[in-house]
Automatic annotation (TrEMBL):
Residues 125-159 form a coiled coil. This is Transposase ISLasa1a, IS1223 family. The keyword Coiled coil applies. Keywords: Coiled coil. GO terms for molecular function: sequence-specific DNA binding; transposase activity. It comes from the Bacteria. InterPro entries: IS150/IS1296_orfA-like, Transposase_8, Trp_repressor/repl_initiator, WH-like_DNA-bd_sf.
Amino acid sequence: MTKYTQKFKLDLIQEYLDTGCSQRCLENKYSLPKDTLKKWWTVYNLKGPEGLKLRHFKRKFNVDFKLRVINYYLNNDVSMSKVAASHNLLCSQISIWLKLFMEGGSEALKPKKKGRPSKMSKMTKKDARKILKKESDEIAALKSELRQVKMERDILKKSLTLFGPSKTRRKQ
């Protein structure tokens, strides 16, 4: 989708007003998609030049706003495109909200968590430090135990070489 600057949109609207050329004629002249100038004209009439500015961020709407827009559309005899223009939205966004509302009520309009759920629980740095300290203490204890066992083994080996294997007497 091509993004057009606010200046280009205003120049096109000004040309539409000055020349008396139809919207379709100007759309063909500048190779614009069908009804683009019509949408810009509607937004310009409702919001003025500020309505034609580009948005450089993703907007988030709360449930109350969505319900107000749906309520306005359902209770007034206004087309979806006019409602979209008056609230500075896209028609498709309103139709998605309307469909969700019809299927699941206001609960369906609440934002949902995005992405794949994590398999591991999120731990804080404090928890991670505790676990790390516990494991390092356990490793230190195991190392000291291993050292002790090795010393005992070495002592037994030396005693075997010095004293020889023990002989048990058999009873006759």
